[in-house]
Amino acid sequence: MQQEFDLIVIGGGPVGENVADRAVQGGLSTVIVEHELVGGECSYWACMPSKALLRAGAAISAARRVPGAAEAVTGHLDVQALFAHRDDVVKHWDDSGQLEWLDGAGIQLVRGHGRLDGERRVVVDTPDGGSVELRARVAVVVATGSDPLIPRIEGLAEARPWASREATSAEQAPRRLAVIGGGVVGVEMAAAYASFGTEVTVIARSGLLREFEPFAGELVGEGLAEQGARVITGASPVRVERVGAADDADASGGEVRIELSTGETIVADEVLVATGRTPRTHGLGLETIGLEPGDWLEADDTLRVPGHDWLYAVGDVNHRALLTHQGKYQARAAGDAIAARARGDEASDAPWGAHVATADHHAVPQVVFADPEVAAVGLTAAGVEEAGLRTRVLDYELGWVAGASLLADGYRGTARMIVDEDRGVVVGATFVGQDVAELVQAATIAIVGEVPIDRLWHAVPAYPTMSEVWLRLLEAYGRPAA
């Protein structure tokens, strides 16, 4: 028996939910196919639980930097209470609240693993061992996200390593944790577990946060060291072994020994692999429409897959910007574009149009919730050089801003603004320091809006706040001509 809908969305995370919501608002009958929890990776195993685990340590560190408050911090972080709070944040891995939202939004749900079976056709293998056939009158959206990439290191897979899910859903903190990888996930989980009192070792061959400005990795590395973590650079794991576990089925137990290229051996109770992501495109039936299983799916700025006018790839799976907020941005554009095309209208596909994800190219905001935080948007100094732009790079020490001195005694941090000299607009900004996350939205607006530097002088920052750094950066750039 075949069921027909205007739109079929494979993947019920925040990206799939947003595509479906916009399509329903555009008048399309829509179904989501999801084999795990509706709400997806971000809600249950990534963004939300990781930030819940990080917050308590950040709050204690912030209090210890304020005279008067520091003296009130007399105990240690209660890890089990924090894990209980994490459980509340993820609704104890129960998606019943999301199901109520789907019902209220007019979106149908089919539980099971969905796979393409030719053009506009999806077969769902259901949990009871049966199957459901779905047909899309208009479009199919693939919003299946990504999985952790486990590198081919001798013995690593057999050592039963943690990936991001295991790190964010752990029921207790190990005494020793080794982290392989110096990207966002590795840095955030290293910071979280170090705040729990875990002995943390980060193995980051090329350094920390390499996609950001160099000072970001340097300051975050200093912060990890202050938390008691060790960061090893210039070395790679060559062999991993778990020894002393009760049996091969034991997901933990014993200890993990990691042999490095330098000859040193790191011993830990658990090893977290945070070396990148791989697309969830295996088992999706891509071969039935001439695409390669296991590959990232290419998508244009309206998120449509070239050569398939009925197929869209949204979120991580298209490898444009592997961030929840950016995936939801793509989802809004895609859902509106699908609905417009279904009505026979043309999609607004010009840059910054209603149906495109233009910001993916050069205005992607991101926050790393380490201690210190990193908040960045747009191009880095290396990026503008690669793009061949004529720019000026302005740096300012955040500790010199009045608002920072109130936040923390001896505040340390750096702000960078990059200006395109030919257009007179900001094209990149990076802030590193305590509580800088909220600064990134102003920078994002300046970049997306292409606000002229001369006009930014009239955006007066309130005193004494961290936002005063904008005035200091503009002063470093120079006053506008009379």
UniProtKB/TrEMBL annotation:
<dbReference type="Pfam" id="PF02852">
    <property type="entry name" value="Pyr_redox_dim"/>
</dbReference>
<dbReference type="InterPro" id="IPR001100">
    <property type="entry name" value="Pyr_nuc-diS_OxRdtase"/>
</dbReference>
<feature type="binding site">
    <location>
        <position position="316"/>
    </location>
    <ligand>
        <name>FAD</name>
    </ligand>
</feature>
<feature type="binding site">
    <location>
        <position position="276"/>
    </location>
    <ligand>
        <name>NAD(+)</name>
    </ligand>
</feature>
<feature type="domain" description="Pyridine nucleotide-disulphide oxidoreductase dimerisation">
    <location>
        <begin position="364"/>
        <end position="470"/>
    </location>
</feature>
<keyword id="KW-0547">Nucleotide-binding</keyword>
<comment type="similarity">
    <text>Belongs to the class-I pyridine nucleotide-disulfide oxidoreductase family.</text>
</comment>
<dbReference type="InterPro" id="IPR016156">
    <property type="entry name" value="FAD/NAD-linked_Rdtase_dimer_sf"/>
</dbReference>
<dbReference type="InterPro" id="IPR036188">
    <property type="entry name" value="FAD/NAD-bd_sf"/>
</dbReference>
<feature type="binding site">
    <location>
        <position position="114"/>
    </location>
    <ligand>
        <name>FAD</name>
    </ligand>
</feature>
<dbReference type="GO" id="GO:0050660">
    <property type="term" value="F:flavin adenine dinucleotide binding"/>
</dbReference>
<dbReference type="GO" id="GO:0004148">
    <property type="term" value="F:dihydrolipoyl dehydrogenase (NADH) activity"/>
</dbReference>
<dbReference type="Pfam" id="PF07992">
    <property type="entry name" value="Pyr_redox_2"/>
</dbReference>
<keyword id="KW-0274">FAD</keyword>
<dbReference type="InterPro" id="IPR004099">
    <property type="entry name" value="Pyr_nucl-diS_OxRdtase_dimer"/>
</dbReference>
<keyword id="KW-0285">Flavoprotein</keyword>
<protein>
    <submittedName>
        <fullName>Oxidoreductase</fullName>
    </submittedName>
</protein>
<dbReference type="InterPro" id="IPR023753">
    <property type="entry name" value="FAD/NAD-binding_dom"/>
</dbReference>
<feature type="binding site">
    <location>
        <position position="51"/>
    </location>
    <ligand>
        <name>FAD</name>
    </ligand>
</feature>
<feature type="binding site">
    <location>
        <begin position="144"/>
        <end position="146"/>
    </location>
    <ligand>
        <name>FAD</name>
    </ligand>
</feature>
<feature type="binding site">
    <location>
        <begin position="181"/>
        <end position="188"/>
    </location>
    <ligand>
        <name>NAD(+)</name>
    </ligand>
</feature>
<keyword id="KW-0520">NAD</keyword>
<feature type="disulfide bond" description="Redox-active">
    <location>
        <begin position="42"/>
        <end position="47"/>
    </location>
</feature>
<feature type="domain" description="FAD/NAD(P)-binding">
    <location>
        <begin position="5"/>
        <end position="325"/>
    </location>
</feature>
<dbReference type="InterPro" id="IPR050151">
    <property type="entry name" value="Class-I_Pyr_Nuc-Dis_Oxidored"/>
</dbReference>
<dbReference type="GO" id="GO:0006103">
    <property type="term" value="P:2-oxoglutarate metabolic process"/>
</dbReference>
